[in-house]
Amino acid sequence: MTRPFALGHSDPTVQPVPASVVEQVDAADTTLSNPKWAVISIGSNLGNRLETLQGAVDALEDTPGVRVKAVSPVYETEPWGVEPGSQPSYLNAVVALKTTLPPSSLLERAHAVEEAFNRVRDERWGPRTLDVDIVAYAGVTSDDPQLTLPHPRAHERAFVLAPWHDVDPEAQLPGRGPVAELLSALTREGVEARTDLELRLPE
Hints:
With 203 residues, the protein is α+β, with helices and mostly antiparallel strands. Helices cover 26% and strands 21% of the residues. It has five helices and eight strands. Strands 1, 2, 3, 4, 5 and 8 form a six-stranded antiparallel β-sheet that branches. The chain has a two-stranded antiparallel sheet with strand order 6-7. Mean pLDDT is 84; it is low at 1-18 and 24-28.
């Protein structure tokens, strides 16, 4: 994933990023030296979910060595790995960014952003105010238990692949292949585009 992300869209309800915003974001890249592309998945099913996701986007942009380049449409999804109806539904989105941080430092920042929004890790797949996961980092593959790259379950999750495909229709998940093909093999049941909600690119 060394090429730029296409800012196109695969859904007619998804609005393209205005050219003036793209130019403004690209101009900010002069502060980065040899940046790498990364894809971040964000989700929330407690509290003001949309406000929390926007706060996560803004916090990532406020990180030295990080520039947010694209933010996906918002999807509402049923919780993963739990009994239906046992938790509130999630709002999910994907953030594409350029960064000079190594993967380990980006992970530390992701955890810090979660903690800022009072993320609690009491149970696996439990409800949370905010979940921030590194889905992919450039073309890096790693079996490090602290940070497996790409995310080991990304290829199984329509709530990750659908918004990623929206911001980059030609995206590739390292070791798995085109996101479009992976997405076509999954059911989208319980994964609904929320065209009435929108996340903003940081100014």
